[in-house]
Amino acid sequence: MTAKKMESTLIGLKYPSERGAGLKTGAGWLKGKRLDDGAEGLWRIGDKLYDLDGWARNHPGGSEWITLTQGTDITEAFEAHHVTLLAERLLPEFYVREATAPRSCPFTFKPDGFYRIFKERAREALKDVDFHRPTKTSNLIADFLFATTLLLCTTAAATQSWITIVASGIFLTWTLNAGHNYMHQRDNYRMWYMDLSPMSSKEWRIFHALSHHLYTNTLLDLEIIMFEPIFHLLPRKDKGLIPRNFAWLYSPLVYSLTYFIHAIKRIYSVFWEFGEPELRDAVPFLIPTLMCFVAPPLTAFITWAKVIFIASCHFSLVGLNAAHHHPDIYHDGDARREDTDWGLAQLDAVRDRVEIEPSIFLILTHYGSHTLHHLLPTVDHAYLHLCQPAFEQTCKEFGVSTELWTQWKLLKGQFKQLGNVEPKNTPNMR
User: Where do the TM regions start and end (predicted)?
Assistant: First the structure.
């Protein structure tokens, strides 16, 4: 059953035009943004329209960020993706005219607001490192995971050992999760580590970087939309009896099929939405091809399917319980704070875990340092700790808690949220 149209408690957020689409893809989400954002085929930042078409090939982050977002409001992406002031200084060169329609999202970036103050301090904290590029530590971890995954997968195909198959699935998801660090950054080959699974780094840049990261836990968050109506993570009184009471029972099956569902969506998007395959669309075939060198093709395919099944379950278990879902974390429908500062909205929709933060390996493989990552998504995870003092200082000034939660609390909270039909009547904030 399709969820009924609900009104956002983020006053001024327009209901997304494509939210009720049958097959929920990144391209479909962008189509809805183009209908809603009043960008008139250009790029909108605030109430001004810019023509970035000629700039795309020169964009330091890669042309894809520009070409994907044509015809949409990129205010939040522009603010969050640029730590330095260079982009802001270059922007007037591309100005076309004022927008005629109001913004479809009310988030603000005032100079005296939380986010702008924090980002200024973060710039100072990062001034002595090349934060536009990944760290050697992150590279070593990601490359180690990639090489180990290939070794384990070929060994699994050769031996048919269930221990090796399970280990292959775990390492494959760790590699994908480490690739997430690079997907947010300028174009690079390590972001293709995500494509070793049936999931697409291009799709991730849309549903994760451009949707989830910028409109976290709102009606515009595609990572919430894509699970409906199987999982209803927003607090709605009209949740069906089965998803409200039995999601915990069928979750393992949904978790295990996530990669396979994304494979179907990827094929559809590549040929019917984007129009043509790219080189990265061949990457998912690397592992099964290597398996065919050490086992008969049918055996290799069956082994690969087992690995994907395990990896999918592991990925979903980690991803859905990483930081965002608990009745005490803001979800659209809950009462929210009056201040519409984008940074504060991020803080209210995320928590960090005490078990993950001490280890850069766990941070890379389990979506750690989640709050700082949401505030500074293009900064390598291994540099984020440099911004912790600035973060704590700004939180103290704005009366925001920096308390760490346990993984167990978030795991339990996610299932409580699936059954939650009572939106908070008092602002659900840190």
Answer: 140-159, 165-183, 246-265, 285-305
